[in-house]
Amino acid sequence: RAAAAAAARAARLEAELAALKETKAASATEEAAKRAEQARAAAALQAAQRKIDELETQVQELTDELEVLALDKEEAAMEKEDLEEKLEEARLEVEAARLELEHAQQQPLPPPAEGGGSGSGGAGEGELREQNAQLREALGKLAKLSQTEKAELAKQARAAEREAAALPGLRAEVEGLKEFKAGAQAELLELKEQVDTGLAFEGMLEELTEKNLDLEQRAAEAAAQVADLEAALELSEEIEQSQAEELRAAQEEAQRRETALANTQGALERTQADLEDAKATVGRFRALVGELKERGQSAEAR
Fold first, then answer.
1. If we measure between CA atoms, which residue out of 138, 27, 130, 56 comes closest to residue 93?
2. The model's pTM
3. Biased-composition ranges for Basic and acidic residues (predicted)?
């Protein structure tokens, strides 16, 4: 019974040990998966942070460029207004000069004076024509300059509009990456909590490992006890078998001795009977001898 109980206890300990080993292996696999997931999340978070930094830098650069373009646009608008004012002034001057020229042309020419009077009138008309030509040339230059400034301003405005149109997309991408960063940080925090839980579970796993080792030791001790009990049982069985054989031999010997004793007692009884018979015979013989002696003495006396 003790051997059976020890064997059952050893079997229970081995089953518990196998269950603990399976739990330990599953826990190690789960912990490795959590660490790998945490590493991937951290890498994704770092990549997202780098992308956010790059996009924020681009957004800042574009914002600075837009501010510069806005200032350039304001300056160009002011220059345009100045040029338009100057152009308007030049037009007014040209118009005034043209009116003066027309008025001068409509006036009758004075009679030629002696000593170069005609030369003086021709010189005045030539000066008006020259002034008119200069004003026309200045007007053309101003018009050309105005068209160039307008083209440059339009080019800058189109570039600013393109950059301004791209800016919301970049900002949306930045916001999306910020949301991704927030989600990744939350996921990373959750993973850290899981890792902390895993560390706590790892502590419990260490306790289970120690318990596992203790159970292994206890199982080994139980197995040793079972082996000792089995050896003792075998020895006991051998002793019992030997004792049974010795008992059977002793019983057989006792039986033989009882038989011999019975035979001896029978022989003794027979011998005693023979002895009694012999004693009786001797008694009868002695009586006969005594009787014979008495008869002989009686015969002699006569």
1. 138
2. 0.33
3. 245-259
